[in-house]
Amino acid sequence: MANPVPPRDRTDQPWRSEGAPPPQPPKRKMPGGWGGLILTALVVYLLANIVLSFFNEGDGPTISYTEFDKQVAAGNVTKIYSKGDAIQGQLKNKQPVPDGEGDYTKFTTQRPAFADDDLWAQLAKQNVTVTAEPVVQERSFLSNLLISLAPMLLLVLLWIFIARRMSSGMGGAGGMLGRKAPPKPVELEAGAKRTTFADVAGIDEVEGELNDVVDFLKNPQAYRDMGARMPRGVLLAGPPGTGKTLLARAVAGEAGVPFFSASASEFIEMIVGVGASRVRELFAEARKVAPAIIFIDEIDTIGRARGGGSGMGGHDEREQTLNQILTEMDGFTGSEGVIVLAATNRADVLDPALTRPGRFDRIVHVNPPDRGGREAILRIHTRDIPLAKGVDLEHVARTTPGMTGAELANLANEAALLAVKRDQKAVTQSDLSDALEKVQLGAERPLVMPEEERRRTAYHESGHALLGMLQPGADPVRKITIVPRGRALGVTLSTPDADRYAYTEEYLRGRIIGALGGMAAEHVVFGVVTTGAESDLEQVTGIARGMVGRWGMSEIVGRLTAIPSDAQQAYGLSAAPATLDAVDAEMRRIVDECYESAVRQLREHRPQLDALAAALLANETLEEDAAYRAAGVIRAGKEG
User: Fold this and answer.
1) Does residue 295 sit within a domain?
2) Over 70: is that where the pLDDT of 276 sits?
3) Are residues 484 and 620 in the same domain?
4) Residue 270: how many CB atoms within 10 A of its CB?
């Protein structure tokens, strides 16, 4: 089995990569530069000094010598310190500041030179202590410097922390929240093998188309010497599960070049401009390691035709992302060696600017595999699964028409799971058959039905099966069961012997008659119609609508397409009301004719219907041979 692409390692990196060398980490720059940091530090230093000045006690208020003498006389001074005529002191009790606000205990004053009072005598009388050290201890210059620098240091640390978070990819809004570091490619595990064309089967014609891309990536100089230009983009279009992503990885693995894989929806964010920024970054990374391949999955998410909607919100972001992809692809030259592969299930809705020559020059349709392709795919997906002797993968491939590679891989895995549950050492043919039933018909339900309900279900399924056996050219009946599976109370499985690519009107009418067989059997035997025919009627409506409105199988409507194949488009936008009325009338006519034919045939073959229903009631499940034998019908053209 092929190794999956490793997950991405960053939330803002919408792609995954394999085979790309790790890039050199860029030198980190301080946002705003060191000049901005120094300027901010100076501003913070000045603000810190201003703030600290408000909290610094200093020497207290300066009071008049008269106020000082008054406090000494009142015995309110506890100690003083004098240096020259300057006096510092401290009061015993707080006093209001003269001609000011607040109270003070420490103070400074100046003794006039002409004062002839006996200050020392008064101080001694009041027991005032004259100290040898200043009353107010001022902080040193170093202490003031450290205190003032503390806020600035905190700011610098915060600045560096934010800068590192931004540089490591926290800012994701296209540069609005900071610079993102370039993506670090995620490598495969050591010894893991890259996907090649050996891991792809069933779509050989597509491999031939993509071999040109592989050869160009391996030998670009030969193409340049010839003056040839390789397609800049290859669009892989096809139903889900047909292997488009696997093919893209196989091209990169076969050529031995780096492979960048992304889903288109991962480029889109609510903030406008993020998608375009991510596209630029992805293409820049691919150019660094060219030759390389960029694979964009589900490109119709952002590549739909422009011009609709109001151009607001996510719609505008989608268009900007698409415009950036168009610009990047149109800017390529053949010497760059970067090729864009894209996958979509809806190539019809893509913008014409995206599929024009010079961008996606080549459109490769990836269809479900044929019988030989299904067998090859089964062999690939069972390489690591031990198979018992006698397992016939060709028979499994013959009974799985229309299944894609993903569905066949799931079938093989379901068979392996069943073998483990049954304590087996290898997967048997029975395991594959039971897994196919589970995939096609649904899991069995442990539902106990009343006998009357069980009998009605047996006739319902017998009606489907008998009409399928009687219609010329109809798909053979493979299995009938009245064991409840999924939402159905019973199932009739019919598959063709060979793949069909075109259908005749007779075959489609036979499909309608067979689908109406259940309702017709209930009507013939019980005279009632139940809700069990709901899914049958949905199938009938789809076939009849296609016959009349799309495939020109009605003389009244004519050879035209009155109903679009796109189910999302309203019918009224595709044809005139009179034409749609004619389509409706013709659909009813065809279905009514088929229902009458179903009722008539069941009445004519009532004994065979009863015999088949009785065998079904007795056995609950009838395989192909047992079903034909119970109905007494000889199957024509049975393959060995």
Assistant:
1) yes
2) yes
3) yes
4) 9
Q: Which of 439, 463, 498 is the last residue of a domain?
A: 439
Q: Nearest 5°: CA angle at 405, between 249 and 477?
A: 175
Residue among 288, 191, 193, 329 nearest 250 (CA): 193
Q: Is the pTM of this model over 0.85?
A: no
Together in a domain, 377 and 345: no
Pairing of strands 103-110, 259-263: unpaired
State the CATH number of the domain containing residue 301.
3.40.50.300
| Rounded to 5°, angle at Cα 575 from 574 and 580 | 120
Task: Label residues 622-639 b or e (16+ Cβ within 10 Å = b).
Answer: bebeebbbbbebeeeeee
Query: Using 50, 70 and 90 to split pLDDT, how confident is the model at 252?
Result: confident
User: Chain-centre distance of CA 383, in angstroms?
Assistant: 30
Residue type at position 164: R
Query: Given pLDDT bands bounded at 50, 70 and 90, which one contains residue 410?
Result: very high
Query: How far is the first Cα of the chain from the last one, in angstroms, to the nearest whole number?
Result: 32
Domain identity same for 205 and 249: yes
Higher pLDDT, 353 or 152: 353
575 located within any domain: yes
Could you tell me if 40 and 71 lie in one domain? no
Q: Are 373 and 499 in contact (CB under 8 A)?
A: no
Residues, the chain: 640
CATH of residue 389: 1.10.8.60
The fraction of the chain above a pLDDT of 90, given in percent, is: 14
Q: Tell me whether residue 361 is in a domain.
A: yes
Task: Write out the two tokens for 485.
Answer: 């599976």
Sign, CA torsion 232/238/239/244: negative
Cα torsion 117, 118, 122, 124: sign: positive
Token couple for 217: 């990536």
Q: What is the mean pLDDT of residues 292-315?
A: 70
How many CB atoms neighbour CB 394 within 10 A?
13
Which residues, other chains included, contact 195 with Cβ-Cβ below 8 Å and sequence gap of 6+?
2, 3, 246, 249, 250, 252, 253
Which residues lie closer than 8 Å to 201 by C-beta, 6 or more apart? 369, 373, 376, 377, 379, 380, 405
Residue 68: CATH number of its domain: 3.30.720.210
Query: Which domain, by its residues, includes 469?
Result: 451-631
Q: Is 336 a catalytic residue?
A: no
- What pLDDT is attached to residue 466? 92
Dump pLDDT digits (tens) for 212-242: 888 888 887 888 888 887 778 888 888 888 8
Choose one of 439, 464, 488: the last residue of a domain.
439
Q: Which of 461, 534, 593, 620 is catalytic?
A: 461
- For CA atoms 543, 548, 549, 551, the dihedral sign is positive
Q: How many domains does the chain have?
A: 5
Which sign, positive or negative, has the C-alpha torsion 129, 130, 135, 140?
Answer: negative
Bridge partners of 293, per DSSP, are: 259, 339
Residues 361 and 377 in one domain: no
Contact 403, 430 (CB under 8 A): no
